[in-house]
Write a structure and sequence with these properties.
Blueprint lengths: L6 H47 L6 E5 L5 E6 L8 H16 L7 H12 L7 H11 L5 H4 L3 E12 L5 E12 L7 E13 L5 H6 L4 E14 L4
Antiparallel strand pairs: 1-2, 3-4, 4-5, 5-6
Helix pairs in contact: 2-3
Length: 230
């Protein structure tokens, strides 16, 4: 078939091609604009997600006078590692709380002693598992032992292991029978605990563990014995 030579057909074909060509180019431009907008929107969304994930709360300390007027205000300092002497004191308090046996005391009193002991333990750690398993044995349960004896604990040394977050503890225990005539039992103990520090997160934690020293693992052993258990 030969191409039409009539100028009217040629002009009509050009008009048709120009009209649909403009539509095709316009569609292509809108597609490019849409893809570009989606790309920019994706980048913005990812930026917002990253910004939200990396957001940090900055605590401030504000002091007020008796009239409620603000005196000084400033950013709270990041918790610094506590002094080794304070850590040693806190670990000694933990040993006394966790090893002392009270004489047939009310359940609430014994529960409060154990609560103060567990305040130093990182929940979910091997230390918590070790203590739970240990006290699950009636021979070690202070509520059971309190029916026949009392136990006094004297911490003799708390020393850090150089180059590690582990501490070596030594203490002596004196078990006094409640029934007269039964022998007193004295033992010496040695233990190792691994600790980590983090800021207390609750009001109770601030009261019971103000330094934020938490025990993550514990291992203790009886090294000498004098006398016998009633």
């Amino acid at each position: 078939m030969t191409a039409p030579t009539d100028p009217r057909f040629i002009r009509a074909r050009h008009e048709f091609a120009n009209a649909f060509g403009d539509l095709a180019r316009g569609k292509r431009n809108w597609q490019l604009a849409t893809f570009w907008t989606l790309g920019v929107l994706s980048v913005v969304v990812l930026a917002y997600v990253r910004l939200a994930g990396s957001a940090r709360i900055v605590p401030y300390i504000v002091e007020v006078d008796r009239l409620g007027q603000v005196i000084p205000a400033g950013v709270a300092d990041v918790m610094k590692p506590p002094d080794a002497r304070l850590v040693a004191s806190q670990l000694a308090a933990f040993v006394r709380a966790v090893r002392t046996v009270l004489p047939a005391s009310p359940p609430a009193l014994e529960a409060d002693v154990m609560r103060r002991a567990y305040a130093f333990v990182d929940q979910g750690s091997t230390a918590a598992t070790t203590l739970n398993t240990y006290f699950a044995d009636p021979a070690h349960d202070p509520r059971v032992l309190g029916r026949v004896l009392t136990r006094q604990v004297d911490v003799t040394s708390v020393l850090p292991v150089p180059g590690a977050s582990t501490w070596k503890l030594r203490w002596a225990e004196t078990e006094l029978p409640i029934q007269p005539g039964m022998p007193t039992r004295m033992t010496a103990w040695e233990g190792y605990v691994t600790v980590r520090t983090r800021a207390p997160a609750t009001a109770d934690a601030v009261q019971d563990n103000p330094l934020g020293v938490f025990i993550t693992s514990i291992d203790w052993a009886e090294i000498t014995v004098t006398g016998g258990r009633p």
